[in-house]
Design a protein that fits this description.
Number of helices: 11
Number of domains: 1
Number of strands: 10
CATH topology: Rossmann fold
CATH architecture: 3-Layer(aba) Sandwich
Order of helices and strands: EEEHEEHEHHHHEHEHEEHHH
Structural class: alpha/beta
Strand content: 25-35%
Shape: globular
CATH class: Alpha Beta
């Protein structure tokens, strides 16, 4: 069953007249984007910085309104819903941010950060919230001693785990991950991917995974959509994209993936020289 669907989404931002021009300009951030996400699927959204990935994420979450087009959740068209109407489905759709530390209230403890969505969406009893927070901490691999810590007292990996814990606290169906591993080293990146995979199995989650790194999509994403200048130019399975990309831009992205073996790097350079 389709969990999420985007139909001909467009987002245009107007720019005011400047000092040296009398013409008003506009920027097309998202251009006629259509796709669907099945329940239990992980969709990778790949493209360079500024191609419209994060704008698309905000449209999907209802944080911004599209200039035209529709967004549906389980066949419910929520494109024009108000803030209060969005509360009906807000608990089912959550986000993991690129910079978790910047998304936290620095005056909140870990317990308050994870407990805030629970308090906002119905769990009024402090004791019940505390139990849910403790259970969620265990799910993301953090110890109970961290419950009273402040964000600045945690390592980068721990901060990202708290960000994931906050996103799953309401036990949503859909999580949008906006470049969640870009600030982490290779070891932590693998740990976080393994964690998201485990949570997907345990909680029945679906993901929209935004990244510019094609090296992670093969084993993490069921399908991949490639964005260029606000448009989706190619959509394939993760394995199919790695084996045979159709669009020239996708092939360029694949060629930019670092190769660890120096002998293979030399062969690639020789191939490029011959071509």
């Amino acid at each position: 069953m389709k969990l999420l669907e985007a139909v001909s989404l467009n987002k245009k931002y107007g720019m005011k007249r400047g000092w040296f021009t009398s013409e008003a300009r506009s920027v097309q951030a998202v251009n006629d984007v259509s796709f669907s996400l099945e329940s239990g699927e992980t969709l990778g959204l790949v493209g360079e910085s500024g191609c419209g990935k994060s704008t698309l994420a905000r449209l999907l979450l209802g944080l911004e309104k599209p200039s035209s087009g529709r967004v549906l959740y389980r066949n419910m068209d929520y494109t024009d819903w108000s803030f209060s109407e969005m509360r009906q489905i807000r608990s089912r759709m959550q986000m993991v941010f690129q910079n978790s530390l910047a998304s936290f209230n620095p005056l909140f403890t870990v317990e308050q950060i994870i407990g805030e969505p629970l308090r906002n969406y119905g769990e009024r009893k402090a004791g019940a919230r505390r139990i849910l927070v403790a259970d969620t901490l265990e799910l993301v691999g953090l110890e109970q001693k961290h419950i009273h810590s402040y964000p600045h007292e945690l390592s980068g990996g721990q901060q990202q785990r708290v960000g994931i814990a906050r996103a799953i606290a309401l036990r949503p169906e859909l999580i949008i991950c906006d470049e969640p591993f870009s600030s982490l080293d290779v070891t932590l990146r693998k740990q976080m991917m393994d964690l998201l995979q485990a949570l997907k199995r345990e909680l029945g989650l679906s993901y929209v995974f935004i990244t510019h790194d094609l090296s992670v999509v093969n084993r993490f994403c069921d399908s991949v959509a490639v964005m260029v200048q606000g448009e989706i130019v190619e959509k394939q399975s993760g394995e199919g994209l790695m084996q045979q990309a159709d669009h020239p831009y996708t092939r360029k992205l694949l060629s930019s993936i670092p190769v660890q073996d120096p002998r293979l790097r030399r062969k690639d350079r020789e191939k490029e020289y011959r071509e």
